[in-house]
Amino acid sequence: MPFRTRSAYAFLAPYLLVFATFWVWPIIDSFLISFQNTRINPWKYSFQANWGRLFYDPAFYNALYNTLIILVIQVPVMIALATVMAVLLNSPLLKARPLFRFAFFAPVVVGEVAYAAVFRLMFSLDFGIINKMISAVGFSPISWFDNATAAMAVIILAVTWRWAGYNAIIILAGLQAIPDDVYEAATLDRVSKTQQFFHITLPLLKPIILFCVVLSVIGTMQLFTEPFLITNRGGPGGGTETLGLFLYRQGFTSLNFGYASAIAYTMAALAVVISFFNLWIGRDPK
């Protein structure tokens, strides 16, 4: 091996060692743990204890259902909203564009605990501003956290508020990469702005939008903070418990590490499958 190559690997060795110790090995070890019954001492191999349980556990299917509901509703709404926001932020008619871009991106900077606490206070039954506004127009206050559907709506609103601006900035970068000549030629051909958006902007933005969709799918499959803090650990009655929260409950509340590892790998597999499905749907026809 040449000296230059050995020197390069020598410089990389500390990082590779840390990477293997704290990333590669935990992944391998957790996969092995998923095949062990960790409710007994010492742990023993048992496929049925974890993977077998996964197929008939109603609590798992409840968490999966809640996660998919958020995925199906929240992700398309957020991506559509982010696309509209990006187009508005890219408009030359908008003044102080850097200020608005920062304002839309700012929710990502806010700590998850702080923003979750604010949303819980906003939707409080007794003194929340949302119920104050509902009462002001003559309707009865809504007990947001005592109804599974209402609590799910709060989570969807919270996640959309936090991540729509982040995706809008990514889509804005894609918008700015589209040459102005394309729009100038379309304008000369008397193509309306609406037609330009649907027949020029969206097709050229498709790779960027797909990237945002994949990121959002992965993030939704791991959703934990919002149901844990806003709806008090997935309440009411597990109506907003997600796979991430279910994993936490099995691993750190019940200390069933084998089952938690099986859930984690199931979440990862679902995220990969759904992401590849989105990429397949959005592929360019040949």
UniProtKB/TrEMBL annotation:
This is Lactose/L-arabinose transport system permease protein. It is a multi-pass membrane protein. Signal peptide: none annotated. Belongs to the binding-protein-dependent transport system permease family. Gene3D superfamilies: MetI-like. One of its GO terms (cellular component) is plasma membrane. InterPro entries: ABC_transporter_permease, MetI-like, MetI-like_sf. The keyword Repeat does not apply. It comes from the Bacteria. The chain crosses the membrane at residues 7-28, 63-90, 102-122, 142-161, 204-224, 257-281. One of its GO terms (biological process) is transmembrane transport. Residues 64-278 form the ABC transmembrane type-1 domain. Pfam families: BPD_transp_1. It comes from Rhizobium lentis.
